[in-house]
Design a protein that fits this description.
alpha/beta; binds the ligand O=C1O[C@H](COP(=O)(O)O)[C@@H](O)[C@H](O)[C@H]1O; Rossmann fold; 6PGL
């Protein structure tokens, strides 16, 4: 695809994301964990199953650790983990036992503890998983998604898709001004990634933006400028990929106070004071 072609999935006109601000990263991770458990339980109440797309990164992994903590409390066992499909938004194309694998972090933090059945854990292939190139791994993952989808559709229902965001606005492994920002395929290979490791597999905008709900989890002052820019109307997703993601039903920016520090007051002010 030519570099002059438009980004395929600009934000929808009139689409208003929710912004939630927690005092710090730990309270953010706890709040998101509780909300995720509730959302997956609600999806199971309606559909019998639930599906979540995981992210790598510090805050994404902290959320999973808190979900594991909630799952260990008998009173909070509202999710049937045997009926949850787990997908990934991006993965590093490195050997399966490499500590850089997002899958490895998620298994340690949550999946090993809650016992999601093997066939429901849809990991993106590692570099030693039988695919010589990330392009082949990406094509395989797209076929896995399609195989789980209703007939004739490319994607299954994705109830919640979690995304971290880099300080330059990357989401999943879609980096600013990279070929992935203009790629119309649901899953893409990423080479020469500016953040190591350089070779990755990522969902593309069409798959991310087909999720029912997209939740962006962001903590830390270093990401505050990108948060503010992503939420500013008219920001070009080619330059700041986080500006180009949205859910079908909801887009939620879940921030700690530092990450929200450059947002206009309308996002962070509490409800009007009606006292007196
Ligand atoms: O490389 C990646 O980075 C982002 C953000 O990570 P963070 O540690 O800065 O929160 C992550 O969302 C993505 O899945 C990962 O592969």
């Amino acid at each position: 695809m030519s570099n002059d072609s438009p980004a395929p999935h600009p934000p929808r006109a009139g689409h208003v994301p929710d912004v939630v601000v927690e005092p710090d990263a730990d309270r953010l991770a706890r709040a998101v964990a509780a909300a995720l458990v509730a959302r997956l339980a609600a999806a199971q109440a309606v559909h019998g199953t639930a599906s979540v797309v995981l992210t790598g990164g510090g805050i994404g992994t902290a959320v999973l650790e808190h979900v594991a903590g909630l799952a260990a409390e008998p009173i909070r066992e509202t999710v049937d983990w045997s009926a949850v499909d787990v997908w990934w938004g991006d993965e590093r194309f490195v050997p399966g036992d490499d500590d850089e694998r997002n899958e490895k972090a998620a298994r340690r933090a949550l999946l090993d503890a809650v016992g999601v059945p093997h066939e429901r854990v849809h990991a993106m292939p590692p570099s030693d998983g039988g695919f010589a190139a990330p392009e082949d791994a990406a094509a395989w993952y797209a076929a896995e998604l399609a195989a789980a989808a209703p007939e004739g559709r490319p994607l299954p229902r994705l109830d919640v898709l979690l995304l971290g965001m880099g300080p330059e606005g990357h989401v999943a492994s879609i980096f600013p001004d990279s070929p992935a920002v203009r790629d119309e395929r649901p899953v893409v290979a990423v080479r020469d990634c500016p953040k190591p490791p350089p070779t990755r597999v990522s969902l593309g905008f069409p798959a991310i933006n087909a999720a029912e709900e997209v939740w962006l989890l962001v903590s830390g002052e270093g990401k505050a400028p990108a948060v503010a820019e992503a939420l500013r109307e008219g920001t070009d997703p080619v330059r700041l990929p986080a500006a180009g993601v949205h859910g079908v039903r909801a887009t939620r920016w879940l921030l700690d106070r530092s990450a929200a520090s450059e947002l206009p007051a309308r996002y962070t002010a509490g409800p009007p004071d009606h006292a007196g």
